[in-house]
Amino acid sequence: MDTQNYLTQFLEALTLKGPLDQIDALANACIETGGCYSAGKQGGEITLHGITGNGLSEEEACRSWILAAQRRAEIMQDLREASAIIRRCNGRSEADLTNACKFTLQHSTNATDRNVAAFLLAQTTQAVAA
């Protein structure tokens, strides 16, 4: 499953819903995928797809989860773009390649992507120093 596309589609569907329907959708998704949904007088917490949202109420926890998921989706898209720059580094400016490598090292959990980014960043730094 393409996590980024799934997350983006889920977020788009959530934005079309009202607050109560968003709560229901998140609760159902937690049940279906093994996430965690807890709500009570002490507040709420939603953990779904590795993203957590907390709040003093269910509504606040829902809003918090949606904001965190939107940030995650943006980072995933930026990582995809950085990966494309790194894979096709020929013809790219040194600044673009350097920024893509730094972004990948900061945000990626993929060991191969991080290793390639570190190698290319080191090569770029050595070329500038020479």
Explained architecture:
With 130 residues, the protein is of the alpha+beta class. It has two domains: 3-74, no CATH class; 88-129, no CATH class. Helices cover 70% and strands 12% of the residues. The chain is built from five helices and three strands; from the N terminus they run ααβββααα. The chain has helices at 3-15, 19-33, 58-87, 94-107, 111-129; strands at residues 36-40, 43-48, 51-55. A three-stranded antiparallel β-sheet has the order 1-2-3. Strand 2 (43-48) and strand 3 (51-55) form a beta hairpin. Helix 1 runs antiparallel to helix 3 (58-87), helix 3 (58-87) crosses helix 4 (94-107) and helix 4 runs antiparallel to helix 5. The radius of gyration is 19 Å and the shape is elongated. The termini are far apart. The model has no long low-confidence stretch (mean pLDDT 89).
Strand content: 5-15%
Number of helices: 5
* Spans of at least 5 consecutive residues with low confidence: none
Mass-distribution shape: elongated
Global Rg: 19 Å
Major sheet: arrangement of strands: 1-2-3
Q: What string, H for helix and E for strand, traces the elements in order?
A: HHEEEHHH
The helix content is over 70%
